[in-house]
Amino acid sequence: DSSHKDYPKKWLIKVLFKTFLQNLVMSVAFKLVHDALVFVSPQLLKLLIAFVSDAEAFAWQGYLYSILLFLTAVLQSLCLQQYFNLCFQLGTNVRASLIAAIYKKALTMSSATRKESTVGETVNLMSADAQRFMEMANFVHQLWSSPLQIIVSIIFLWGELGPSVLAGLAVMVLLIPINGFLVNKSKDVQVRNMKNKDERMKIMSEVLNGIKILKLFAWEPSFEKRINEIRACELKDLLKFSYLQSVSIFVFSCAPFLVSLASFAVYILVDENNVLDAQKAFTSISLFNVLRFPMAMLPLVLSSMVQVSPQEDCLICLSEPCISLLTGSAVRHAAHWALLSCSVTLDIKPGSLVAVVGAVGSGKSSLISAMLGEMENIKGHINIQGSLAYVPQQAWIQNATLKDNILFGSELDEARYQKVIKACALLPDLELLPAGDQTEIGEKGINLSGGQKQRVSLARAVYNDADIYILDDPLSAVDAHVGKHLFEHVLGPKGLLQKKTRILVTHSISFLPQVDNIVVLVAGAVSEHGSYSTLLANRGAFAQFLNSYGSQEEGAAEETTAGTGNATGYRGHVCLEVLKAPRCDSLCPSPPHSISTQSTTSVKKAQEEPVKKGQKLIEKEAVETGRVKFSMYLQYLRAVGLGFSFCIAMSYVGDYAAYVGTNLWLSAWTDDAERYQNETYPVQQRDLRIGVFGALGVSQGESLFLFLATILSSHGAVQASRIVHEQLLSNILRVPMSFFDTTPTGRIVNRFAKDIFTVDETIPMSFRSWLNCFMGIISTLLMIALATPFFLVVIVPLGIFYYFVLRFYISTSRQLRRLDSVTRSPIYSHFGETVSGLPVIRAYGHQQRFLEQNEKTLDINQKTVHSWIVSNRWLAIRLEFVGSLVVFFSALLAVISKNSLGGGIVGLSISSALNVTQTLNWLVRVSSELETNIVAVERVHEYTKAPWVTDKRPPHGWPSKGEIQFVDYKVRYRPELELVLLGITCNIGSTEKVGVVGRTGAGKSSLTNCLFRVLEAAGGKIIIDGLDIATIGLHDLRQNLTIIPQDPVLFTGTLRMNLDPFDQYTDEEVWKALELAHLKAYVQELPERLQHNVSEGGENLSVGQRQLVCLARALLRKAKILILDEATAAVDLETDHLIQTTIRSAFADCTVLTIAHRLHTIMDSNRVMVMHAGKIVEFDSPEKLLQKQSVFSAMAKDAGITNTETTTL
């Protein structure tokens, strides 16, 4: 087996190697030429210095050397860029082929393998790991080139300095493990920090999902505190990380000094006759500079190799199972799956309608999976003749237009299409959608209700005209009367599919009499099958099942049909609500390419995406006009602290001053050698000592300055991060509710994840590198100008050229980067969709179409990536040309003014010039990076807020009576929309119980939102106990009202925290509240009782229990005014009854407003407010309203209530 394990490892690399052989060979050739040329420059430099020191030499030699220097530099840059281009091409090709391969494998994955890894993991494999391979491909040549460069430079250095080179080398080698140690340490810190980050993001997304509750209960401060605590830990680790980084930067920047220092000192001390002259010193320095790069690269390449190898394993284990399946070995899917359908023998005749029924978990869906070939059959076989169409239990909707979802890649046949839509009851829905069947549907069908999704899924199957239809409970998600319609027009004996074979899994008993054949499953085996009448006569399990449920089901069916007018109206309405928002622009027919702007960050985001992308581009473009940008930098520096920023800048200046000083000292020292050429002087030793000492002292100074700068800047950066995050968080928690209705959570989460990360880690790094590069260039130019003052004349035109190239490149590059990220997300979202819809795709046999689509999206992305790479190469060639010109001119000027110059100063100016090319290149990179990133600071600042507490505080104990007055109150959701409440005037007395009823959309919920000022008034006012609520702070208002909301939202944390986040109450009070909420018994049984951990969204409690927890919250608050917003819609009748009794007893002395759909719940209230289209139509006691011909009595009739006495609850 071990041989089998090793084989695939080599397999992936081997295949990649074979495929891209030509590319590899060419890049090796270019790299070799480049590496050879790297060593020519130092040799030419040596000749030039010799030429300047030698008074007798001919002028033409000097000019020749200058021109040669220029040519080698140009050639070198051409080769290097060609090589990079090939490397990047290799990288993109490798990535593309890997992604395509993973996708292809995913389509053939068995369901057993699919269960092993989540969709997220597979998508990750595609995104991150394929990306790693791509980066790896760029470095792969360093594996042979680095050692080669190191060996060659050592040989040359040996020629210059003899064995004393080894001292310098020893220093270099010593530095490697130190760096390795630092890297490992900082990795640990990073890992720890990831945990903090995840924790913070988890709470954050919970807060955003439950923001309405937080606002209604005025709980924001508690959560703000929690998030800030986590953030504090995170920043502490971040500081540690930056310290480690400063140390490693310090070590790294010391390296060249220490190395040259060690070598020169040893060289001079070993032998009396060794004199350090300009030739030797500067040639060696430029060789040492050549050495730095490979020495730094090697460890990086090795570690990236190490990172890739586990990925390789993942990629392979993804590919393995498919192979094993092809070889015919059966994979059992865990023991209990093997027994799922123990032994099922079925024979279904063509054209018949078969219903499959059975309790939950009896294997209905498994039977269907087996038919589709999604499950391993251990024994026996499945034989299917004809094509399949499949409707899964949870509708799978693609991110495309509604029409595309139904056509699913088939040709459009208008007549059939219309017939299908009509039969599937989609016509009324199409009218509601902003763009009819051209409406773009978000990821996972986010802008459709459950029933609509299910009907689209059904329509897809019906349109697809197959021979066999497998329907996995398609009627569960739709309302009763819609279900009836679907059965009559599509599935039943008279439906569209009457001639086809239909296998229908169902829970609804009402349709069974019309079915040809019923299969009853019990625990994975067929217990009986036959027609409805036969089964009833058999008196088996099925008959018992019918007797126990049948009577209820009948009643329920009738009741639901009576009530559904309301219910479906409700659903349609919900859908409208969602689309009324400005989002609908995005859902209108959008040009096909707008789909590509979809992002995977969040499902919700999808709805707004096209518009939002539009806004995004505008936001970012606005940043690009020079001036705004500068204010951005200032804003960041202000967060760091202006004094701090100044200190950092000054320490960098000090650092480079020291650097220039060191080099000038060195050149003076080398000139000594000429001065005492002919006489041996006893002071030599002493002079040299001073020299060495000077060099030492200054280099220490330089490094210490640098160390100071990095330490200071890491402090400053953490400071800035803290401030920026706190501002963002407090702003988000204080923005008005309407903001959350129009902004997808995904976008806000993105602010907290991506943008904060940028502010934390990327911006400080970019700032640091920018300062470094900038100072480096300035100091180099200074040194050249000191040697040959004429050089200043040349700088000006070069500078202008450089600046234009820079501006041109930065704007292009930024746009390309953005296009890259925009075109990248469709690859992943398409992949994610594919994986979640695999059974459907396979059932319809559409694998090929999906493969092609994946390749198309991938190609679009590859185009932008490739353009970006090529633009980088374009830039590099132009910049390196500028660099080559600098070298050329410094050499030329040295030749011209040969007589007035010593060798030392020439060596200095040219060796610095040789160094400048790379730095120029870096400066551009870093500038564009900084510019792209600084936008994050701006995006974090763009939210506005409303105050929590104003100067006017309400009196203590307010509201004491609980009287509410509405005075001609008007309100709208957003400025551009219509009024929702059209002027409401009413008085609600102290401790009165008022029921609020009305059809959906009548403005009932808006009423509560107004009391809590979730919506601000458009006119009129609300007065509670004589105080106008618009004049006091939001928290003062909200802490004194209580609401039991429609959907019970719980947060992660202990149960106690969910009831009392501020720890205001004693444990006895909390237990008392739980007892009144009928939860005491349940909580006492929990092992941790009040400290019981609630999982995300309260998943580990049932919906009913969550509702009771919300009730307990209200009981704890004991405010004078209580609002119930359809609080009992989600619970069963028994719990409902409990809640009602509790409210009656516990809140007897409070004012209670109840918004209800079930009229039973409000029949005993003092008065009933009937709302219609934003106005109060009737407001009186229920008895009076029932007696006269009123809207209310009509509603009561619908609900089967004739007089108040009959309300049994």
TrEMBL record:
GO cellular component: apical plasma membrane
Chemical reaction(s) catalysed: ATP + H2O + xenobioticSide 1 = ADP + phosphate + xenobioticSide 2; 17beta-estradiol 17-O-(beta-D-glucuronate)(in) + ATP + H2O = 17beta-estradiol 17-O-(beta-D-glucuronate)(out) + ADP + phosphate + H(+); leukotriene C4(in) + ATP + H2O = leukotriene C4(out) + ADP + phosphate + H(+)
GO MF terms, alphabetically ordered: ABC-type xenobiotic transporter activity; ATP binding; ATP hydrolysis activity
Keyword DNA repair: no
Lipid bilayer topology: Multi-pass membrane protein
PANTHER family, alphabetized: ATP-BINDING CASSETTE SUB-FAMILY C (PTHR24223), ATP-BINDING CASSETTE SUB-FAMILY C MEMBER 2 (PTHR24223:SF176)
Name of the protein: MRP2 protein
